[in-house]
Recover the amino acids of this structure.
């Protein structure tokens, strides 16, 4: 909102209850989303209070209700924004008729590597039995990822792999394991194998490695 | 402790402070460990109080301090017991000079499939930044799993895979992804792909599938 719209001539700005003075709206929203994300990763959203989130963001706690309705609303906005890069990846993949398994692997792993908080949010609020964003993540991401992976494996010739004892119906599980596990289990991999998948050079090595493995399973032709 | 040792002749039993009457010690400990595990998976240990754990176990809350010193002590005993099947798997693998990658894959996946709470405890208390059992899990399992996986990959001829663009140093990451991710991400896989890795028939299919994939990467000879 432009400030000229709020201040008409010499009339003082009319503000709704709790409307923040001073700070621009976008900056306050941004600071709150960042603070909610940091605290969600550090301690989980249950342990974070509106007070602790507002403190971390450097704004008045009332701003949470003003902009997001509640801590829940802020959490949901934060999760949706955090999922955005992967959502975009899925949407462009679903839209592209000729996308290959290799392109998908590359795009998806790059999206995860560039947004290190997403795997951590999934560990916190999707995988646990009472994960707060489980349904949101299922509806927005998982529901599309399944059919997409199955389609990509089919087009890459997954059914031919059955000759060698490989189960075509389980190949999407393998692809997901190779693409997602390193980021989900990053702290473990770093300790066990000195591999940090969020390090840019390591991400590239992992992608090249996974593409080489897929090439051995499917033949390199189908992956380009 | 045998009861004859506590009850000397007709003298009433002398009990230390808080020593439970009636219930046998093993049963009380068992009930507390089971309750702690259930609540840790359902809500996380932070949210579980000694009162709620004792209530779930059907025992007096004082029994937690009596047997385990504290909620922390109970949690640690519960985690150590839950890791036991995988620890045994690792120990026998480290001890076996001629163990193959295939045998390890089979044994490790069976251990995870038969102990569905372990992956859930890892999601709750190992993978998050402030995971309460992160160090315990790292020291007991991760520290041994890294060298073991590297050794198995080496012996299976992983270095030869480099000719085809596969990175031998990343093969242990791939093996861990294939063996662990399905159990860690079980709720997601069930929704996305209708695959429940804890279902006995599905576990067997996943193991056979992974062994077939390893066979294509390493040759079947080295996996037997």
């Amino acid at each position: 909102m432009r400030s000229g719209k709020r201040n008409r001539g010499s009339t003082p700005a009319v503000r709704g209850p709790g409307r923040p003075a001073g700070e621009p709206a976008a900056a306050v929203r941004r600071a709150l989303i960042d603070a909610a994300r940091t605290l969600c990763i550090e301690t989980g959203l249950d342990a974070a209070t509106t007070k602790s989130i507002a403190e971390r963001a450097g704004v008045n706690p009332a701003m949470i209700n003003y902009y997001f309705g509640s801590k829940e609303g802020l959490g949901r906005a934060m999760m949706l924004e955090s999922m955005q890069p992967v959502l975009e990846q899925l949407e462009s993949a679903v839209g592209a008729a000729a996308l290959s398994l290799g392109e998908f692997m590359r795009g998806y792993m790059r999206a995860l590597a560039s947004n290190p908080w997403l795997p951590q949010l999934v560990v916190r609020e999707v995988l646990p039995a009472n994960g707060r964003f489980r349904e949101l993540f299922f509806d927005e991401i998982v529901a599309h990822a399944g059919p997409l992976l199955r389609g990509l494996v089919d087009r890459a010739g997954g059914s031919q792999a059955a000759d060698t004892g490989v189960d075509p119906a389980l190949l999407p599980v393998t692809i997901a394991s190779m693409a997602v596990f390193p980021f989900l289990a990053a702290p473990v991999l770093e300790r066990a194998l000195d591999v940090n998948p969020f390090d840019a050079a390591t991400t590239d090595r992992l992608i090249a490695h996974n593409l080489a493995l897929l090439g051995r399973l499917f033949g390199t032709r189908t992956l380009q």
